[in-house]
Amino acid sequence: MTGLYSPPPKTGSGSAQAAMTGPYSPPPQTGSGSAQAAMTAMVAAPLLDVRDLALQFHTRDGVATVLNGVSYHLDPAEVLAVLGESGSGKSVTAHAIMGILDTPPARITGGEILYQGQDLLRMPESARRRFRGREIGMIFQDALSALNPVFSVGFQIAEAVRLGEGTSRADARKRAVELMDLVRIPGARQRVGEYPHQFSGGMRQRIMIAMALAQRPKVLIADEPTTALDVTVQAQIMDLLAELRRDLGMAMILITHDLGVVADVADRIVVMYAGRIVEQADVYQLYRTPGHPYTRGLLASVPRLNGKGAPLATIPGLPPSLTKIPTGCPFHPRCPYARDVCRSTVPPRVPLGIGRYSACHFAREVADGRRG
Amino acid sequence: MFRFIVRRLIQMILVFVGTTFVVYALMFAAASDPIQALVGERPVSPQLRADLTVRYHLDDPFIVQYLRYMGNLLRGDLGTQISGRPISQLMGQAWPYTLRLSALALLVVLLVGIGAGLVSAVRRGGVFDHATLILTLVVIGIPVFVLGFNLQYLLGVKWKVLPVTVGADAGITAYLLPAVILASITLATAVRLTRTSILENLRADYVRTANAKGLSRRRVIGVHVLRNSLIPVITFIGVTIGELMAGAVVTERIFNIPGIGYQLYQGIHLQDGPTVVGIVSVLVIVYLVSSLVVDLLYAVLDPRIRYE
């Protein structure tokens, strides 16, 4: 994976353009930037738009603020990477989009999730269910536990097919085999009746993908799809996802903490920390000139070939407990740039270019590479 | 699979020989004077005593008696009661009553147990959930005969909604109360187990996947969760099938049902060794076969189980 060590090559010119020109803050006022005006006319409204999403977990230990005003959008046929440590809220945001949060303990306390202009959070469950799987599909990290152990993979894929198309059992079964072929499971016809535990990790993740594609969604959310896999298999799965996304013209939200994966596949990145988005940029800019100290720390902690023997750079300290998020900028206790203002004031989004911002008081200094 | 069954059958033979030996030895040790027990309070003439002793080999050493008994058993001869009645005939008459009772009890456990467990899990923390929690604790805490006699009095004698006793020629409705009494503890446990199992499975990752597909809640719970949740429940119920048949001693006595449990009680009361050992032997076989069936059923419910 060359992307680990150098700025990534651009994949798919069409989607890259969409990323460059995509509106960066709530889209209705896209006309405000004069340079943008001409280009935005060509860009459709985002497919998916998460606005100021706030979410809490009510636990015995108190109320944990898991999401604190998360906003991001996804354009058609675009790959958006959501990057962050565990607990940063990246998966929870995805669950909120899908409407599969465990409530309780989770409770959405504010914001909206617009899919093609319709607010998913303000529709009855019966209406919302039609978006799940059909408009937005999702694949999960651990395919072994995410697949039902007591039903054959064919049953589980066919079940999704029937939901979307209402076909007969026999036709759904045939389509399940086709989908298994599509995700390149060898001997699909023979293996359609087998159970999840009879497949290898990589094959199980392919089955998850086949299942998610069964209803031909416009958006695919991949929640750490390769984390549980061997490195060689990781690359195969990512290649498959990238290829399917391109062929089927889907948009994809790729949730990951793996910077290498991001560089290869994504058009645009949002970085999350302690339930907030700290930086948004396209891949190239983010790798070259990270605009937030946290992003900078993440990139510095990637092992490099030319740094062999030297200790790995780490971000000092630990992510905050979500029941006790620091005042001001939540990253300030770990931040080399931190000053008094960081401890008292939540940093605003500082625009760093078209479709690019960083939530840091010293965003420009960080982006320019000046030390804190 | 075939080898698994063969191995289990061989194990069953060993268990069968062991248990019959223990039961036979216990009855042998406990027997004071079966001839006196037969005639009750009246005196027994020495001539009659000598005749009976010879006819039933009562003077032979224990091990000879046991081996003779087992030899007959293998030829399908369960022996005769001291009264002279063949035990196979006794069982032929008694089993249908017990089967009717335990089949109905099993049905109650399956329908009410799994149904109530499902509802209290889905409506966790609701009125139904709390009510069943209290009720199941009460049922588990109260001895069967207390529950049996009280319900018999209330429903049979006082309110007259159900027959007081069953007897020999009763219809299936008469078995309803005895079946519920017989099932009560298994039922209460099945409710708790189903509830716990479903709640645990509701948190499983595959449920999130099923939801993400856009399946209805009914289908997620009724198909995905239920199938997984039933694995421990069916295992538990299967293991108790033997208990439902053997455990009918108290229930059959309360409701005067002339089944196997009733006959077993009579046999123990009369110190009738052959009857007790014969019935227990058959019950042991019921236990062993039902546990084998459960093990095989387990593989049907859970494809991850393979018998090598």
TrEMBL record, chain A:
**MF term (GO), any:** ATP hydrolysis activity
Q: Does the keyword DNA-binding apply?
A: no
Pfam families given for it?
ABC_tran (PF00005), oligo_HPY (PF08352)
- Domain ABC transporter per the UniProt entry, residue ranges: 48-299
Its main localization is: membrane
Biological process (GO) annotations? peptide transport
Biased composition regions of type Pro residues, renumbered to the chain: 1-10
What is the name of the protein in this document?
A: ABC transporter ATP-binding protein
Automatic annotation (TrEMBL), chain B:
Annotated source species: Rugosimonospora africana
Q: How does it sit in the membrane?
A: Multi-pass membrane protein
Organism lineage: Bacteria, Bacillati, Actinomycetota, Actinomycetes, Micromonosporales
Please give the InterPro entries that the UniProt record associates with this protein: BPD_transp_1_N (IPR045621), MetI-like (IPR000515), MetI-like_sf (IPR035906)
**UniProt-recorded name of the protein:** Peptide ABC transporter
Q: What domain of life does the UniProt record list for this protein's source?
A: Bacteria
Q: Which PANTHER family match?
A: DIPEPTIDE TRANSPORT SYSTEM PERMEASE PROTEIN DPPB-RELATED, DIPEPTIDE-TRANSPORT INTEGRAL MEMBRANE PROTEIN ABC TRANSPORTER DPPB-RELATED
Q: Which residues form a coiled coil?
A: none
Q: Which UniProt keywords apply?
A: Cell membrane, Membrane, Transmembrane, Transmembrane helix, Transport
